[in-house]
């Protein structure tokens, strides 16, 4: 019961009071910051922009958008690099907050932020293809001597089609990130990102005619570029997962399509599992995404449940480690596929499992003359082949 002359402090009123108090604190804090004159310029930002065919236009968000705001706050020196087939520096500018009072400073900062976004929006590729690795090195070089915090912000799909990381090569998109990094290190192809904070947005985001990537392949691409950044000396790597969307502006130079693969290849009564949604975690028999693998294998399982259908599942590997270890891993992966098919209704007694390691017909030479592993070729050797007997032609989903 409410007492006469008393006050009611129920939950709704408390929330309103707290909200009002919070708003007061925030507005006071903002007003206090606005009254502080801008300090000396410090730090540097290099923005790598895809701005080309086969990927959406760039509209930075989340962590990537915050990087632009931080550059404005610190009055950083900013360079813009376009990641086409022959990366180039588009422009360099020194941000400066000007004015005599807080209102003028705020207006100046807003103008600087819009200038950054306009520069990104106006970037355009000049050369066909895309070489993100070279663009990263160029961007880091542009800010290497700058005092203060140095950030490289990358707005790109990550699907390079030129230079040492050319994803048009069969198998490279499915390659073990550790193998790719080791190969780039051996070739001296890693950019120098020492002392740089690296931020990505747009990895795996595509536009026609580039087919969309599956969730597993996108995650693999993110893992790869993260590994490259850390191996190249970046202090940290952050990936903004908010997607870039839309169609690129017309008139950009062409960029080759990268086959996203599907993880399955079907010919007659043979099904080959090699990467994509049916890929395995490195050096294990665990799927990258068991649910995605099951969805891919469901049509095969449906076909195998017909009366009289049997199958031999043969696992193979790259030439990594000793022969017995290769054989065991290849057999374990074939067994993992058999177990998954069993969970989808295929009787276990209809499946035979074999592991051949790297000694099998059709082996792709995955080491060069010096013994260095070729990650793309190695990925092609890491597969499980299903030979169906008593079934009609296999159908890959």
From TrEMBL:
Keywords, A to Z, come to:
Membrane, Signal
Query: What do the Gene Ontology cellular component annotations say?
Result: membrane
One Pfam family named in its UniProt record: OmpA
Q: What is this protein called?
A: Outer membrane protein/peptidoglycan-associated (Lipo)protein
Matches recorded under InterPro entries = OmpA-like (IPR006665), OmpA-like_sf (IPR036737)
Q: Where is the signal peptide?
A: 1-31
Domain OmpA-like intervals: 267-392
Question: Which SUPFAM superfamilies does its entry note?
Answer: OmpA-like (SSF103088)
